[in-house]
Specification:
Order of helices and strands: HH
Distance between the termini: 18 Å
Number of helices: 2
Number of strands: 0
Strand content: under 5%
Helix content: 55-70%
Shape: elongated
Structural class: mainly alpha
Radius of gyration: 14 Å
Oligomer: single chain
């Protein structure tokens, strides 16, 4: 997780808006697959997979500004 206050956009960013949509969509897709029984994993495993997959891209967009 990114610490609060470490990244503060100076103004609204279209890239940040797109990032939020993508991350939310990825999370919902993973949770739906898990709830439908298409993915067999513990909640901790889902969390670890989601973070490992999504956070590098989130950090990249936030650093680029």
């Amino acid at each position: 997780m990114l610490p609060r206050g470490q990244v503060t956009p100076a103004r609204p960013s279209p890239a940040l808006d797109r990032l939020v949509i993508c991350v939310g969509g990825a999370l919902l897709a993973l949770l739906r697959a898990w709830a439908d029984g298409d993915v067999s994993a513990t909640p901790a495993e889902l969390d670890a997979t989601f973070r490992a997959t999504v956070l590098p891209g989130v950090r990249s967009v936030l650093v680029q500004g």
